[in-house]
Amino acid sequence: MDLKGGKLLAIIVVIIVLVSVLGFGLWWMLTYNKMVNESERIDSQWAQVTNAYQRKFDLIPQLMNITDSYLNWEASTYANITNLRMQWAAALDSGDEQGQINASSALDAQAATIIVSVENYPGLQGVVVVQDLMYEVTGTENRIATERMYYNDYVREYNSHIKRFPASWVAGSGDFEPRRYYNSENAPPAP
Fold this sequence. Notes:
The chain has 6 helices and no strands. By secondary structure, it is mostly helical. The protein has a single domain, classed as Up-down Bundle (de novo design (two linked rop proteins)).
């Protein structure tokens, strides 16, 4: 092999190394950015879950105020709703996701009690305002379930992505931790 052939081989090796390094760098950057986008999508979806629960926490007192004029509600029920609303607000302010889940789960149980009470009093069901609020609460429940489902789907996609090889290298160097699924404490245990 002559000197010219050696230079050509060296240039080819340098080009291959540069293309490989640039390709790896591009892959690393794209993978990192995708993880950032997935993490932000989870945060955005969690905001949707909290918005839907906030709507529910706003509707329940309205429903109680209207029904209170027709029924003699137990003071403990109203106190429980007020306490849960304060727990929700405190958890929301502190960013305590588990506290939000616990308060929302307890509100679900209280809401069921209110709905049963309304169903047991046909005269109260005839009040259009109560009917409208009941539809709003039911619609909000459906919206919450949908938002929680989307949230868990996004968490699953993200968690799978950061655990898969070779993306796990990027996740490990970029402080990408697995995210928790939304699990209500009233939910049945996983199989």
